[in-house]
Each structure stands twice: as structure tokens, then as C-alpha cells.
UniProtKB/TrEMBL annotation, chains A, B, C, D:
InterPro entries: L-rhamnose_isomerase, L_rhamnose_iso, Xyl_isomerase-like_TIM-brl. This is L-rhamnose catabolism isomerase. The keyword DNA-binding does not apply. Keywords: Isomerase, Manganese, Metal-binding. GO terms for molecular function: isomerase activity. It comes from Paracoccus marinaquae. Residues 93-287 form the Xylose isomerase-like TIM barrel domain. The keyword Isomerase applies. The gene is rhaI. It holds the Pfam family AP_endonuc_2.
Length: 424, 424, 424, 424
């Protein structure tokens, strides 16, 4: 997909500058008592999953403006994911979305192996009707008033598990759009009971070594109430289901102003944090590229994760979940993976002993300054060095552009039509 | 469309109860010094326009779940609007959306006349690409960096005016989705200059007896910045263009917590309030049915309009703009028209002399109580009596359901497919 | 305090009109199959507690503008509460705030009995330093880094229980301002552990027939993080402490746009809803008068309470918690009590069988209309009749004003000075 | 105040490391074609004013927790401002608040000169009543219903101008808390007319070389409506008053999610941007330390200012406006001045030619990356070098702490009492 020689040549042109920057940073960190190599090792060990649907151009309810060479199926999507991982070394897994990504499991495994990829959490879809679907999800799926519709949604989730087992996935993420658009439309309490019952049926079919993730979202597509509207409800669900049920936090699914890093800390305390959907947003669930709107907020989330990383049993599934409306999705995913990795490294840089000292003395000013000092450290040389050493690209976007990949696939992939939005 | 005999029969069954309720309310209002007949006359004189696109089922970026008998073109849409007006007597005009509603103007006029309808403001579309379109609006339309794209968008707006002239419209509403999804993507200042230049070109083509409405929206489909993001920018636009340029307020296009009734008062003061897009919302621009989420807020908007109704030159274009995702659009539009009319009548009920007395004494408690007393008055008998006298239905939804209209048109209109959202 | 003859005379002047309105409403409700007497009985049975501090004029961080005759101590406050209950018949209990309301329990009981009042939940204060206090709460109280400060705060809460036992209270409400103003200032996780430990110490001292209420608040006085920031954290606290720990929902303590009625439904499902602090707000925790900003939202909260009122074990403590900055606090509390009662009666009016029918058919439009029909019914005659029959005032504010109470107490109570805000 | 020898000694200990960091950064920037010396010169030329009230500990409506050695009057406050400027070299002016800072103008000038300080915009206060004040501002000031109260507020503002003239100020900032707490309490339109009339009276008294700044704020202390609620209203005011009237943007005074950098761009376009009140916030108008919550947002504001810095007539008054509740105010002001300067230097670093190239091609990804590349550059060596060369401190907070200043003034300044908040 991406010629190894190209990567090597491009890296060669940047290597001397990188070495200089890396050394200068290393010296500066050493003065603070920080070993740059330890950080580079952490960067190298970090990975975040790519959602298969992220490789296509997203849209809004108003329109979708596709780009050139849109992937036409899961095999194309895996190719694109392979490119991202080849260039960043930071995206070793792909998360599938059923039914769109259905394919022969053997072929999926083979293709992934070829690309150096594995499979992350499976994602079911009951927020959209499929052409061959017997019952509509217009008024809900797992929480529908009609038992047969709920059963159809349960079976779809069980099928997702089955597919996942065949390809080596170990988790199922359940996000539904169920809710209501009018006060009164639904019984808030009974709708939740129906949801819990349906989730219990899915949980009963969960293999012993799997986890199920409950994902909350304050609104959209339902605009007055949403069954799993916040982390409190998600926590109740995970508690009700059992040990293998955990909560997944999507950074864009909260009310304005909400302090997400506190939710992270609380869910870890409850033993119920399962993972993340990374993205950024300014207004609603805008699904913008990670770290592009409020990079400090992303850092603060990772600050909690690093502070609490030794919590027994903590095992997080990191995934990107973005809608790429005006960029080449591959480029956005490359940059986003690097931004997430950046936040992780910056958080790893926090001088925690010093921080705790200030906290103990209620020295708010210096405690905050300690955190900011880590955030404002430009760790780009660390990220780039980790990539270089892994055989990936010092500057992944430049190499991607130089590779001509998009133009190449545009030749073989049919032109996508626009239309009025759509998430697939 | 709706049999007059059916309306009459249904009204007959409700007339005695209505008379009793109307008399009881009249007596109660008389005690407050209010003449119920004057209110009923105001109700009868009130009208709000229907957007042609509101007759179809809306959707979100996740999905669209169409209903039975969706209108397939502007003639179907006009039929549906005719039904709404026939039953409510409160929706005498239709607002068209180009290019979707393009048709022979003579036929449009004839059809509308037959249905007792007129045409309200024209609406252009440059937020979505059409199959035959030369240049894409992916990166903007009237504010695009490319002059030819801007020119294409200008010409589309001029065409909307031309069509509007042929059917008797007197205004053009311009709403664009232009903006950006990333900090840095666009120059906030130069993008605005380009927009202003394009609007001036459109304004130059505006007939002398027309108005142009600038409509602001805080976000969506652009998620980091939007060219016409708030009423302040909309005001600058209207000031820059000239006397026939005014601002249109869509109730759902504001930041959380914003006091919309203040914006109404300010724009009237500036001589720049042109009209409204009515809807309701809880989270973002949810486009829910008017008066269903925060009815008191709708009342407060009308409270300003009634308080300032004698402002010289005030001439408001009232239009509904909603997305009907889970209801029959005709029913939602019927109910919404009535809710908007209700707020107007409630606001007309405010004892303004008493209110001003309390305000003059800074008697906050009684001033507020005076407003609430009007709001909590159940004016349904007034609305129903206005409908009865106009030959419309006392209970429009019941009559609509009894008429079997939807099932009837479902026979002749082809089945709509779902798909991933879309506003058309 | 308020002359019974005055009440009687004022009622006499309004009685005929009330009878006419009550009969007309009764007839209209009867047509819907609703017995007005049953509703009047429910209204009569409803009570909400008054917070002692609500009788004084509140303020902001910018200023406090006291009124005439401000209460100078708990006995004055009880007098004012007595007036409110005398006129509304709807506020039978008072909620005390320690240390401000400390007094000889025997005198408190005697005074309350004389006024026909009881005592509701006790409220501790660890968000402000008292003159004689050994350790400061500047950097927290129950979650402070310093063990001795935490112990001081624990002991204060235990003292509140002790005082409460002496006067017949059965609950303790714990709200603290602990949190941080800077990212990094405090460990979000360890601060929460310290809080939990402190609460366990208080819980250990809770009498067997008492409950402890955990109250969340998204922000203020802490502006970056708050220990008990949302209902999810409050739920974790209540679960951790035990059966007698429950959550208290203050309507003003949530992020923008949050759907509070869903939280109500969820906490009832978890068996953890303990009660409410009623108020209204537009922007932050504005503590405005109940039902004055978004009356429909208050109705929707009561809609959940009425729908779920038969839930086994449900036992709610209803309390007003408002800041009266520009009104006579007695008048605001009178009006607020009536607005809360109004929402309860409107919610009791919902035709639940019909509603469930529509919900079962996913008839969103008619389900919503059913709810709105109840909300827009003007139940004032029911509330007034309940007051009349209880010997309270048909029009409580008019009678209060006619009584000259405020001017009378202003003679004996020293003039209050303004100053820069303050909640006491 | 701060011993020059101490500064020199502290700087000496850090100078070698700074030189190394500065050189490494210089080399890295040179590779991008950026001259570090040009940036250091810009940093050196940057200044932001200190508000006199910022030197005292702030509070909330719940409490105020004063620190040691609180300033007791304007002379103490000037001393504290002198310390800040001495250590940062970035705060050359002080902004006074009348009536609290009233003093003999000759003494003020003398004191300021001694400390190397000048005077920035004057600030009036009509949101709080003073002990000797004839009419109360409880129900408003410049927009009060009572003409005599408005006149009192006008005269206070004219007095502020008079004082300002005597000390060399050239601007008056008008911020008022006027508004309402209840829908209906006030006429939104007439209240605004009264405000405009009062402002015109003040404007009539404005010296020819002065400017008047109108400052908007969405809410607080008024909680339902605020007369100058947003920038649109502020723009109308500035337009109505005349050329010397401009708008001041306080970063914390907006609705949630609002894009402030767009407002900056719009007001510059309208020729009406006068200056800033810098601070940061997460929820409401939290008045937290600049750059501590969302540093990227601060950068984006400066990105507009730098992009548009050559706009003819642009002349900005930069001021900090924060409430320091849990830190030593001097330390917070030191850090905040540096953070604001940091954002300015980072924005100055943006490669604008490259950025414009990407924008012209709608290369959203690379345009955004260009901006972020500037933001993530750690410009601390530039700021520190600018300080060193100006004779200020490389590490101002360390030197401040080493100086023992706070403990020293605590000996001579009387202990402040806490109390319930207050802004003074």
C-alpha cells in the first residue's frame, strides 16, 4: 500500500532535524529528572483502534460531500486502516460495524493479518433500518414497546458477538439511539426496564472472556429523551448486568460544560470504565478530530488515566470515533491517532511526586502549573522518534500525500454519491 | 381533500361543549375586563406559513424513517398544506424551497389558489450539492474561497427571486451552512467579507417591494465556526445591505441558555426584525414541534411581539420550520400552528396596563404573576371557536384522522425509502 | 401574625367567583372523566418544606440588597414561615440550617407548634467559615486533605443530627462546596475517597429512623471540579453508604440542557431518590422562584413523580431552595409553594390510561398532546378551593399585603445592611 | 518591594539553562524560517493591565476566604501591582475601580510613577450600594425606572471620568448588572431605551481623547435578563453613541459553547472592538485564571488579533479581570499575565503565508495543523528571555515566594474578615 522505500526516503530527509530536536528535548527533560527514553517507550506501546466507518466521509442531516476513492466495503476499509497503521504505528486494531462490515471471517482475519492489524470491539447497529429488516427501529430497538422488535435487536447483537468470536474480538459495544422526541411520548421508566431486559438477554450470550460496553449519549438522534443519556444511567446498566459489563465514554456525548475527566475518575473508582471513543467537539456531538478543539481537555482525560493506571483490573479499550466531513478520512485518522498519543505522552510527563506535594499543601497555583508544564512541553520529537524506530513515518501525512494512495484507490473504487447525510 | 361534511359533522358533535367552555371562559375573562370576542378576532386574524419541506418526514445524520404517503413533489406538498389550512384556518401561506419545489409558476399559482393558499418567503439551498451542479458546496457557497462557486450560489439565489416573483412571493430567506470544522481552516474575517460581497450581489437583484432575510445559526452543519453564527452578525449583514434587508430568528439556532425574547426586542429596536422560523428544541437545533418542549418560552417571544406590535414599520413573516421524525408531518404541522396561535392569544391576554403599573413600582413578583396569569389561561376555547367560525375544525387532528387522508394518498404516492438522514 | 378575620373577609370577597370557576372547571373535567374533588383532595394533601434561610433576602457575589424587616434569627424566620403556611396551607414544615438556626430545642419545638409547623431535613454548613471555627474550609471540608479539618466537618454534621433529633427531624441533607478551581489542584479520585470516608463516619452516627441525603451540584462555589458534581456520583455515594442514604435533586444543579425528569426516573428505579430542592433557573444555579422560568419543566418532574408514585418505599422530602434577591421573600415563598402544588395537581390530571394507550401504539403526537392537555388546564380554582377549605387564603399574596405584616415586623427587627452577597 | 539583588541572584541561577533552551528553540524556529529575536521583541512589547480589585481575594455568593496581607486600600493595591510588574515586566498599567480606589490624584500619580506604573481604563460601579448612597441600585442603575436613580448613576460615571482625567486615564469601562430576575419584571425594550439615554448623557461628558467601553455579560447578577446581554447589544450601543464608543469583550461573559474568536473578528470588522477582560472559565462567568482551563481558546483569540493587527484604527485595551479565590492574588496575576503573553507569542508564531495557502486550497487538515504547530511550540524560553532582558524575573513566582513579600505586608496590613462573598 505504502512503499517502504518511500517511508525510508522521507524519514531520511527528516532524521537529522529529529535527532537534534530529540536531543534538545532530552536534555531539557533530564534537567527535570525525566528520562526521555522511558517516554518514547510509552509512546511506542500506545495504540488506539480505528473504527471501520471512520474511513468513509461522514455527513450531517443536511448533506454529505464524499471525497475521492471512498472505500466501498470492509476490505477497502481495512486497506485504509492498514495505511494509517503503517504510517503511525499507533493504530493496531480495527473496530467493525455490523451489518456493514459483514464478510467471511476467514477472509477478514487473513486480510487483517496481512496488514498487521487486529480486531477491537464489535459494534452493532440498531439505529437505522436495513433493506431486508422485518421490523423498523423508527420507535426504538432494544427498548421498543414491541417485544418482537426488541427480540430482533437482541438477535442482531448476538450475531455481532458470533462474528466477533470468529475474528478474535473480545468485546461488544452497544450504542442505541432509542429515546423520544416529545415529553410524554414514552414512559421514561418502563422504556429503561425494557432496555435492561434486552441487555440481559444479550449479556446471557456473552462469552466468558468477552466484555460488553454500554455507551451513553445525551441526545441525538432522539431529541427529548435518550434511554442511556448519561454516565449515571450507564453505570446502573453495568451494575445490573454484571462483572463483564462496563461503561464506554465517548468524549462528545455530554451536556455542555460537563467535566469529563471527573466521570473518568468516578467510573474507574466504580470498577466500570471499559474504554473510550475519542473525538473532539465544540457544540454538540460534533465528532470532530481528536485534540483539534480543546487539546487541554484531552490531556486532562489522559492525566486521570495515567494517575490511575495502576488501578487493579483497569483494562481500557481505546477507539477513535469521528465524522470526517471536510478532510480525507485517512489523514484525519492519522492526525487524530497522533494527537491522542500526544496527550498520553504529555500526561506521562507530569511530575507526579511534585504534583502530590503541592496538592497536599493546597498550593493550587503550583499544582496547576505543574500540570500545565507537562501539557506545554512539545513532545513531538518523542512521538516522531517512536514512529521512526517502529518503521513508521516521522511525518505521516507528508508521506501519505507523497504516496499517491488516495488517487490510486480512486481509480479502482467507484465514485460515491452525496445525499443527505448518513453515518455509514 | 377533506370532506366539508366530515368537518361539519365532527364540529357538530363538539359544538355544545365548546359553547359551554367558551361562555365560561368569556365570563371569567370579563371579570378581568377582557372581551373574549376581541381575542377570538385576533386568533382568527393570525396566520403562520408552512414550509413545503415540512410535509415530508425529516431525519438525522443517523437515519430517516419515512412514513406512509410521503409527498413526492411540490404538488403533493401543496395538497398537504391545503389540508392543514383547511383544518386549522391558521396556515394561509406556503414557503417554497428551491430547487426541490421548482415547477411551472402558473401551475403553482393555480394549485395554490384552488387550495386557498398563498406563497410566503422563498428559500434557496446552497448547503447541499445537486446532481447537475457544476461546483460543489463542500467548502462553502456564498462565502467560498472560489469566486466561481460564489457566483454559482449568487445566481441560484437570483433564480429563487425570479421564481418567487412569478408566484407572488415578496421575500427571500438566505440561510447557508458555510463555516468551518477546524480552528484555522478558514479566515473568520475574510470569509465574512466574501459572504457580504455575495449578499450584496443578491441584494442588487432584489425587487423594490421585496425583502431579504438573513438567518443566523450557531452551528451545524459547520461545527467549529459558522459565518452567520448569531444575531449580532446577522444585524451587521442587514445593516450593510440596506433597508430591505432584515433578520430572521429561528428559535432553535442559539447557544444554550440564550434569552431569545431579548434578541427579539433588540432587533425590533434596530428596525431589523423580519420574521421567525418557529420550532422548539431541548439540546441543539433539534427542530422539534413548536411549543412542545418549553411552551412558556414561546409565549415570552410573543409577549415581546404583542408588547411592541405598534412599532412603526414592523412587518413580520411567521413561518414554521421543523423536522418531523416520528410523527405524521401533517399532524405535527396542525398542532404546531395551533400552539403558535395559542402563544399569540395568551400574549394578547396580558393585562398590559396592570403590568406596566407593577413594572413602574419594581414590583417584580406581581409583574411576573401578571404575565403567568395570561400564560396559564386555557385559551383553547378561543382557538377552537375561531376555527369553527372560519369553517375549520374544532379538533383538527381528530378530523384529519377520521378523514383517512394519509391512507388515501399512500395509495397513489410511491413508497419512500429510508436512508441516512437528509433534510429534503 | 395574620388576623383570621382578615383572611375570612378577603376570602368572602372572592368566594362567589371561585365557586363559579370551580364549578365550570369541574364540569369540564367531568367531561374528561375526571373528578375535581379527588384533585382538590390531592392538592390539600400536598406540602413542601420552607428553608429557614429562604426567609431572608439573598444575594450574589456582587451585592446583596436587603429588604425591610429582615428576620434576625431563627425565631423571626419561624414567624415568617408561619405566615406562609397560614396563608397557603401548603408549607407545613421548616428546614433548619446549622449553625445559623441553633437555639434551645424546647423553644424551637414550642414556637413551631404554636405556628402549626414541623421540622423537615436538617442542613449542615461547611462551605463557609464561622467566626469561632478552628480550621478553615477554604480548601474543602469533608474532603479536605487535612484529617483534622475533615473531622471538624464530620462533627459539625453529627451535631446537626443531634439538634435534629431534639426537634423531631428525621433527615440530614449534606451539601458541600468542596472541589477545585484549577485542573491539577486536587486529585479527583483521592478527594472523592476522603469524602466517602467522612460520609461513612457521619452515616455511622445516623439514627436508625433517619435518612441522609446526598445533594449534587455541577459547580459553584468550586469552578473547575466539584466532588459531588452530578447524580451519578451522588448515586455512588448513596450506594456506598447504605440503605438510609439517598439522593436529593436540586432542580438548579445541573449542566445546561440536562433532562432532569430522566434523572428522577432513574433514581427512583435505583431506590435512591430521597427528595427535592425546588427552584427555577435560566443560566446557572440561579435559585429563582419555582415555576417562573420553565413551568413545563416543573410539571414534567411531577409527571414522573405521579406516574411512579406507587413505587414501593418511595418517600420524598420536598423542599424549596431559592434565593430571593428582588422580592419580599415571604411573597416569593408563598407563590413558589403554590406553583409547586400547581405542577403536582396538573400532573395528577394526566389521563394515564389514555396516555399509556398512545405510548403503546407509538402515537407520539397524541401521547404528547395528552400531557400538554393536563399542563394547560388552569387548575387555579382547585388550588384556591383547597386553600379556602383549609382556612387559608384564596389569594394569599393579596391577603399578605393587606395584613401589613412586613411593615409591622420592620418596626421591631433591626435594619439589615447590604454587603457583598452571602447566602445566609 | 522586591530586592533587585534577589531578582538578579535568582536569574543568575537559571540563566545557563535558559540560554540553552533559547538557543535550541531558536534553531528549531530558524528551520521553520522564524526569527526568535523578532518574537522576543514582540513579547517584550506586550503589556496587559491589572485591575486594582484583582489584588484582593475574591469570593462567591457562598463565602469569601481571605488570605494573609490583603490590601486595605488603593495604595496597597498599587504596591501589589508594582510587584507584579517588577517581576513580569508585562503589566505596566493599573485599572481603577471607583469608589473603592478614590484618592488624591496627585498621590496616585506619584505612587504609580514610583512603581513604574500607569493608569488604564477607569471602572465605575453601580452594581452595589455604598453606605452613603442616596438611591439604591437594587432594581437597576443606568436603566432604572426612576429618573433620579439613573441620574445618580450617570453622575457617578462622570465622576469616574473626572478622576481618570486627573491621573492620565483615557477610557471609561461601563459594566452594569441591570436586568431582571423574572420574565415580566421589566420591559426589555424600554429598559434598554433608558440605558441608551443614560449612556448618551455619559458620552456627552466624555473628553475628546477618551473612549468609552461597553461591556456585555450574559447573566449574573441578573438571572433572567440583562440589559447588555451579548455583543450584538453592545454593538448597537457603540453604534448609537458614536465614534469614541467601543465594545469590550470579557472572555467569561458568554453563553456556553459560543465561539468568542468569531466575535472578536466581527467587532474588528465593525470598527468597534475596544479591548478585553481576560480570564478563563469552565461553567459560568467563573473568572478563573487566564489560560488555565482552555489555553487553546485563549490562543485562538490572539490568533485573530494577530491576523488582524494591521487593521487601521485598531487600538486595544488589554486587561485582566479575574477572581482569585484560592490562590495568592499576586501569584495568580503574575501567572495570568504570562499566560496571556504566551498566547500572544504563540499566535505571532503562526506561519501566516503557509496558512493562507492551505486556506486558499481548502486544505482544512493542514490549515488546522499549521495553527496547532504554533500553539504547541513551547515558547517559555522566549517569555523568560524577554523578562530577563527587561530586568524582570526568569521565574517570577519563585522569586516572589523567595522575596517574602506577602509575609512582610501581612505584618502591616490588618487581617481581613471572610463573610459572604463580595467582589471588592
Amino acid at each position: 500500500m505504502i512503499d517502504a522505500n518511500l517511508i525510508e526516503a522521507e524519514n531520511a530527509a527528516r532524521q537529522a532535524d529529529l535527532a537534534a530536536d530529540y536531543d534538545a528535548l532530552g536534555a531539557r527533560l533530564a534537567r527535570r529528572g525525566v528520562d526521555i527514553e522511558a517516554l518514547t517507550a510509552r509512546a511506542a506501546g500506545f495504540g488506539v483502534a480505528i473504527p471501520s466507518w471512520g474511513t468513509g466521509t461522514g455527513g450531517t442531516r443536511f448533506a454529505r460531500f464524499p471525497g475521492e476513492g471512498e472505500p466501498t466495503g470492509i476490505m477497502d476499509k481495512l486497506d485504509d486502516c492498514g495505511v494509517i497503521h503503517r504510517l503511525t504505528g499507533a493504530t493496531p486494531r480495527v473496530s467493525l460495524h455490523i451489518p456493514w462490515d459483514k464478510a467471511d471471517p476467514a477472509l477478514l482475519r487473513e486480510k487483517a493479518e496481512e496488514l498487521g492489524l487486529g480486531f477491537d470491539a464489535m459494534n452493532s447497529n440498531t439505529f437505522q433500518d436495513q433493506p431486508d429488516q422485518v421490523r423498523s427501529y423508527k420507535f426504538g430497538s432494544l427498548s421498543h414497546t414491541d417485544a418482537a422488535t426488541r427480540q430482533q435487536a437482541i438477535e442482531h447483537n448476538l450475531e455481532c458477538i458470533e462474528i466477533g468470536q470468529a475474528i478474535g474480538s473480545k468485546a461488544l459495544t452497544v450504542w442505541i439511539g432509542d429515546g423520544s422526541n416529545f415529553p410524554g411520548q414514552t414512559s421514561l421508566s418502563r422504556q429503561f426496564e425494557r432496555y435492561l431486559d434486552a441487555m440481559k438477554a444479550i449479556y446471557a450470550g456473552l462469552p466468558g472472556d468477552w466484555r460488553i460496553f454500554s455507551e451513553h449519549k445525551i441526545y441525538e438522534p432522539a431529541f427529548y429523551s435518550t434511554v442511556v443519556q448519561d454516565w449515571g444511567t450507564s453505570l446502573m446498566i453495568a451494575q445490573e448486568l454484571g462483572d463483564r459489563a462496563q461503561c464506554l465514554v465517548d468524549l462528545g456525548h455530554h451536556a455542555p460544560n460537563v467535566n469529563i475527566e471527573m466521570i473518568v475518575a468516578r467510573l474507574i473508582r466504580a470498577g466500570k470504565l471499559g474504554g473510550f471513543h475519542f473525538n473532539d467537539s465544540k457544540y454538540g456531538d460534533d465528532d470532530l478530530d481528536s485534540g483539534t478543539i480543546e487539546p487541554f481537555r484531552l490531556f486532562l482525560v489522559f492525566n486521570e488515566l495515567v494517575e490511575l493506571e495502576d488501578t487493579p483490573g483497569l483494562n481500557l479499550a481505546h477507539m477513535i470515533d469521528q465524522s470526517h466531513n471536510v478532510t480525507d478520512p485517512i489523514e484525519s485518522l492519522i492526525v487524530s491517532a497522533c494527537e491522542i498519543q500526544r496527550a498520553y505522552v504529555q500526561a506521562s510527563l507530569v511530575d507526579r511526586a511534585t504534583l502530590e506535594g503541592y496538592r497536599g499543601e493546597n498550593d493550587a497555583l503550583m499544582a496547576a502549573a505543574t500540570l500545565r508544564a507537562a501539557f506545554r512541553t512539545d513532545v513531538e520529537p518523542i512521538l516522531a522518534m517512536a514512529r521512526l524506530r517502529a518503521g513508521a513515518a516521522i511525518d505521516p501525512v507528508s508521506v501519505y500525500r507523497a504516496s499517491g494512495y488516495r488517487a490510486r484507490v480512486a481509480l479502482s473504487r467507484p465514485k460515491s454519491t452525496g445525499g443527505g447525510g448518513g453515518i455509514v
